Predict the 3D structure of the following.
Amino acid sequence: MKPSPPFCSHGPVRDARSRLDRLGIVLSGACAVHCVVGLALVGLLGLGGPLLLAPEIHEYGLVAAIVVGALTIGIGALRHGRMRPLVLGGIGIALMAIAVAGPHGLAEAVLTIAGVAVLALGHVFNIRACSLPR
């Protein structure tokens, strides 16, 4: 097994960051499922409207994405120097913010799903970046 590059910190800090990256991926997936299920239940079946479409759910989700993304991807970029995870995370969060700022509907769902997919990809690249040489 190859030794890790010297710029990657091992131990509790790296483990916590890696767990937070994985949490970010799980939250991104949950957000995408919420969008698809919400559209199906509200749009197709007329069920669950006020609860599923509550703006607070989307605002809290965006805040969670920003906090987890900043902690993991931001700190990761400072440690490993790779900008791809940071750029992807920023684009993903921007797409999510645009979606939250607009009206509910198909366009919001598409922007949100695109945003969480790009953000999740940023988390994946962040996890992998520590094993790559500069």
Summary: The first helix runs from residue 12 to 44. Residues 1-7 have pLDDT under 50 and may be disordered. Residues 12-129 form one domain. The radius of gyration is 17 Å.
